[in-house]
Fold these 3 entries.
Entry 1:
Amino acid sequence: MATTVSMPKTLTQGQLHPRTPWVVLGLSIAGAAGVVSLISMASGEEFSLVGTVALGVLAYLVMIVILSRQIEGSRKATDRLVTALVTGAFLIAMTPLVSLVSTVVILGSERFDAEFFTFSMRNIVGEGGGAVHAIVGTLLMTGTAAIISIPIGLFTAIYLVEYGRGPLARAITFFVDVMTGIPSIVAGLFAFSLFAIFFGPGVRMGFAGATALAVLMIPVVVRSCEEMLRVVPNELREASFALGVPKWLTILNVVLPTSAAGIATGIMLAIARVIGETAPLLIVAGFTASMNTNMFADRMQSLPVFVFTSYANQGVDTQAYLDRAWAGALTLILIVMALNLLARLIARFFAPKLGR
Amino acid sequence: MSKRIEVNDLNVYYGKFKAVEDVSMLIEPRSVTAFIGPSGCGKSTFIRTLNRMHEVIPGAYVEGQVLIDGDDLYGPGVDPVLVRRQVGMVFQRPNPFPTMSIRDNVLAGVKLNNRRISKSDADELVERSLRGANLWNEVKDRLERPGASISGGQQQRLCIARAIAVEPEVILMDEPCSALDPISTLAIEDLIEELKQDYTIVIVTHNMQQASRVSDRTAFFNIAGTGHPGKLIEYDDTRIIFSNPSVKATEDYVSGKFG
């Protein structure tokens, strides 16, 4: 019977040389390149790099499995197959990210100069100009949105974790979930119609943009803070209660400091999430070529809208508008990256000290 | 500095479920009382009613009376926070606050209540409490290190120091040694012996040798089966419980026939 295979007595078995897979991979790619170039010559089309890699990887999969099955047995062969598939999936997932970052860095560095960070677009047609008005606008509106949504979100999370019982808490959780899913354009329309009630139709102001961003940000802050508060062990709360500390002081002095690192990270990620929003700001904050630092009057430019309008309304010197758009995109990515780094620093600073 | 605890006809509930039924006992000041019994019999639930920690769990409540020197803990207008300042508690697993240093852990009862304390008073309180918990000599050179940086047995003694720093009348200990090795257990048992001079101590333990070593009186709890409430079966001098108990179930339990 097939199931009563006698087990070998030794602990060693055939093994592929560590370099063998690489050699097989190289041969596969080279072979695939040959095949693809033959096809391209025959059909008169251009040589396809993607086709080469795809064919090469496929050939590698087949060859390594056959080779490994012959020498190492079926368990190792399965292992090599899965290793190759998982690595491949990772590389496929990485490709767009690397491509995106490299494209933005290459095209964005064209106009990533001092002028870009000191000039607005006022009275500029064609070359030159900068995005300082958009950077200031983005920072102002996102900052205001953060000031609005961090207290609301954090307090909601504290209510849900520490006090909320019964139907009210369930309703809040449900609506927070629903809010997480609203499209950003809807948040923009909400802010627009809200401010139109007070200031008449056609209202455009930075504060309305901040409100729209806050609507998008609050559910993210609630969710992440809630998670972080829930992981604080109940033992610590009980230890504090047992010392005769009232509940609110326990939350303030034990629960929040213990979860501060996670909360700070969650808030930073929520900010990073809304700082790139375009649609709501396009509606309620509008776009402008001039610097505006007044949150409560007139249009206010922001980086995503700057990128969008530069691309959408290209002027006479098309290349200048495109370069500015890419530089704006690069600036935005750098700001988000800086926020992430800041979140990590804060997390490290607040992390509970367990070192020996 | 220590008080008498009197429990009259206490029923303890988790929502609809009655966890402990009809307990009455008298705990004398300056004594060690041990609660023994099989798992799930309500020892820990009962000990948590003695400083109103039971009601921290949603849906949990209590019927009956717990008198501390004649004051009913469950009387109208009683603030559970003030109760807990008089009746301290040490938990099964050492739980020092991870964000605080050893020194701040001892001062937690003061600092978490946002009360101000002068540097010299704080130093004195830290030293007195740590000496009281037999920990001073081991940590006096590293008071600023994190509270989680010392060994499990030291952490548990730190938690005891933290409890006695708020100067309670009674100290409740819920299986304080079950997560510790024999040497640390011995250190805590010696400490209980010393604390007995000043405090009323109630200890839950699964270790019958420990109960016979440290306690003056022992209460045996038992449960008829899953879903039934736990009951106080017998409460007497430790010597009697372990040598000549009056109830058969107690004798079976302490002699290892079940449990």
Entry 2:
Amino acid sequence: MSELTREETEALIQEVLEVYPEKARKDRAKHLAANDQSVEQSKKCITSNRKSLPGVMTVRGCAYAGSKGVVWGPIKDMIHVSHGPIGCGQYSRAGRRNYYVGTTGVDTFGTMNFTSDFQEKDIVFGGDKKLAKLIAEIEMLFPLHKGISVQSECPIGLIGDDIEAVAKKGAKEMDKPIVPVRCEGFRGVSQSLGHHIANDSIRDWVLDKRDGQAFEATPYDVSIIGDYNIGGDAWASRILLEEMGLRVVSQWSGDGTLAEIEKTPKVKLNLLHCYRSMNYISRHMEEKYGIPWLEYNFFGPTKIAESLRAIAAQFDDHIKEGAERVIAKYQPMMEAVIAKYKPRLQGKTVMLYVGGLRPRHVIGAYEDLGMQVIGTGYEFAHNDDYDRTIKEMGNATLLYDDATGFELEEFIKRMKPDLVGSGIKEKYVFQKMGIPLRQMHSWDYSGPYHGYDGFAIFARDMDMAISNPCWSKQTPPWKKQPEALEPTEEGDLKKVA
Amino acid sequence: MANIMVGKTAVGAYSFYLPKRDLEDAIVSMEYDSADKWGGEIRLNNGGTYYIEPQALPARFPISLRARRLDAAE
């Protein structure tokens, strides 16, 4: 579908809003907007980070998901205990594909589920004793773990367990850090508060543990912050930084370790990929340790080159040369990828609805392939995310914050994009509508998508989704109108007609 | 009273961050900006004004401060 004008976009929003009762309509209207690049502050055009309306379908997660699933979970050599009933831990286990190196169950624990499995009696009499016992058991069964984080589920906050006291006592006994995280699911309006709580707990319980200790620093120490190594993303980013001469001290938190996190205050520059989930800790380190931070974008060759140069600009000529060398080295490879896929994807349209950084970061990668993003939205963004998005998106394109199931379906029915990038909850709805969908939370079991290597995979995946012949075969032959029957390659439809 | 963070941008201008509201903005004017007296009424790019108790110029930026909201642009 061709681009909509501002009036058409606004009319579309109004039409979609019509089904709501008046109060809900008023509320939802604030979350939908036609992009206006002239607006300096997103607040003037879109409202975000508000409680979802009861009765509508939202795809947001909870604070526990933000803390255990996003920030803490990927730290591989710690054991993250889902403290509470068993479901939260079990249904979120290993779903995010944050890859790591190590022997699971011996020195790394990323894909395992540790839970205190609350029963009725634990709710009635409190679960502190159980937690203390569990900590002792972990120490006995998994002696190579480097620490424990206690990720609270809803009941912990409701019954008022004192997990901090248990954690302090346990940490003293086994001489390893135990971090109590107050990330009960009911806190906040989405997983976003969970990110914040997790950042704060890292700040309070982990980050200053090696202050004053000796560290063999180099002038080129950096850390990768907010890269969760989904499908190997952080590795694809890391090799580029190392090739240009930087030393990556820590990865937060994909394939990261506790020691790396503790050493982060020694670096010279924090490189922040996912702004939404880790800007808090970056700001803290800027204030306390004087480490500047820089947002970067490793999706698509254009943005990668821009980012590499911006990163290099923070260092001396040695690194600047390194950046140019890296860009030049991968240029032919990228040109080959674009030459192969651009003719197949040119002019196709995409609508995105994801979380974190992707609704704005992947726009450049699609544009490199000649595709156009005609609508984008975040599940749990705040104002500052939209401030950054407005500049990236075309004028009058559709923005939707915390879109409901209904809104998203209607928008996509009307705008008819060639591809939707969203989550698993949306995937089958749209595929049944005949629109290809790539699951952009964990790259649809593919990846990495970051870095130059990732872009080659990204381009292939988008082409596979869009050019798959199944999308033209959604309507069975007996439901097709005779005049709508067009000759196909196989010619078998003609026979049926 | 609100917790705010005042920083300095690459070009040396003051920047404002209000964590509670995820508000990032430029500070367009500051009442006192000398070594021994710094702070007072600050005006943001979006029109909001805050008041920081006048104090000595902080040794380094960014710095977290308590500020009183005089007039927020909502």
Entry 3:
Amino acid sequence: MFYKLTPTTGQPLYLQLMQQVRHAAETGALRDGDQLPGIRTLAEELVVSPNTVAKAYCELEHEGLLELRQGLGAFVCVKRRTRSLENDVNLARRRIRDLIEQLREDGLLDAEIRRAFEAELLYAAEAVRKR
Amino acid sequence: MLWYRFWLETRARFLTSLATVTIFCGVFVYHAEGLLRPQWKSGFNRLLFINQQFLVIMWILACVLLGMGGIVREKAVGTSSLTLSLPVRRATVLGVRVGVGLAEAIVLGVVPWLTVFVISAWAGMPISITQVGSYIVLLTGGGLVYFAMAVLVSSLVVGEYTAPAVAFGVVLLSVLVFDNWIPRFNAWRLVTGDFSIDRKTFLLGKHLPWPGILASLAVAALMVLASMLVVERREF
Amino acid sequence: MTNEAVILTQGLTKSYGNREAVRALNLSVGRNRITAFLGRNGAGKSTTIKVLLGMVRATAGGGTVLGKQITDKKANLDTRRRVAYVAEDKPLYGYMTVEQTISFARSFYSDWRTNVERQLLRDYELPTRQKIKQLSKGMRTKLALLLAFARRPELLILDEPSDGLDPVGIENLLQTLVAQSADGVTVFFSSHQIAEVERVADHVCILEKGGLVVDAPLDELRQSYRRIDLVFPFPAPEREFRISGVERIRTSGHQMSVLASRNAEALVERAHCLNAVSVEVAPVGLREIFLETVKEN
């Protein structure tokens, strides 16, 4: 697996890593029982603090996507729900595509649409966090 | 390993001084011996006395150079934060530096005189080993106070070149002041043998001026102690 | 990860004559974390580090390093045994060779790891027989880093570790930092390379004129700092936005740009209430945070 963390987006690196592992599990790049690299290995590879990797692994374990076995490492455990998640994601993409199509017809430029999306996403994220 | 470090640091200075002093003494004595051969006896003893005069000047110059260095100088050169970060007390660092300098200063006194001794023996005009020994004791025993003075100056004065300049100034000043006001306590004359030479035979007396030597060593020790206190308290 | 402080200072002050280099500093560096210490030249970073290591005496206040009082000379000696420190100017004795320097340093520490020393010597491609004074700046930095990394200290303090390194060297350095951290070493480093800090640091402290202006986990900074660009149908109502968490406001006619260290959502809410025509929220990078907080003071 390849992970790519971007330090300059407003999102903590551990969250980015969590999303990428989740995404990999959803797309099937990671399968049930697959082993993830050790905290140290991955931290050195990504050149991020080991605490970042540890936190991501720990949170993913809480979510049930990872199983941390003492001294052995982190293993993926994909349950059936990811299948439906995959469908959800596909559905969402179709809806977004429709929305974008509509906005374009309204005369908005792609750059404007992108900015609006980003602003709303950030706004939503903040509102959720507040709650 | 601090020993090793200070050896590396002073090696060039020490070896240059040693070579200069030894070659000078060797050449001086060997050359003069040839001139003096017909009427040697007291003339030759006088020669040794003169040799000591020259040697003292060079030896003290070398000692002042060897006494330079230390954390204060390192501040000027920029390596003080390495030395200070080592898990060693500042006083220990200074102590080892003084130890290395001391050993070097003694070698600087012993080797030239031994060379003179060997050259004389080889040229067929052997000199008494006690005379040589006495000169060495006077030089190192009485003269280490100048080395200590340089160490003290190096702990007080910052600057790669200011410190040696000040040290030389202090040595010169002390010699002049003592000679004019209290000549009996002039360490310079103690070291050169002025106080213990017999003006007729030009042989050093059987009894060395031990009180003077001990007093001089005590002052030297006090100066080193003072330097340690200064270095422990100083800001870097 | 425990929250125990490895470095802790209270009201630490250091003056040189009338100039206060460090001013009532309350610093706390957590164990097993990578903490970055940022600040402009002359902000007091190096002085702070020197006071912590007992190389410079504090004028007022005090603190502990690894639980030992920094003013206690005996304890300080022990601290220096447990801390590896690379000073800003990468001091090394010019008359020693690389080899001699390494064996000199090795003799002082019981936590020296010869295998790591050999590995780093190979990685850094240092000419062992060359005199220090003939080394380039980058080589000197590498050697100074080797002397610290070959040990296994409890705390690693690095003052401008990337000075003189090329991009490959910097990448190697960061990897080593990460590896050290994974070994359980607490890392405290100062740097001007914000991009590198942004990748590896867990916690960021920004020093300005001897005092801390930012002291927060990097994740928190990432999540809470926002730049909000607004356009109004009327001249921008700057006063309406002067609430807590707003660090800086710039207006130009109907346009307004707000930098918020928190409360971004309240600001967006307010903008919507005031009928803003356009509301754009963007994350703020560490570089911008640094520039804004340092400029302001």
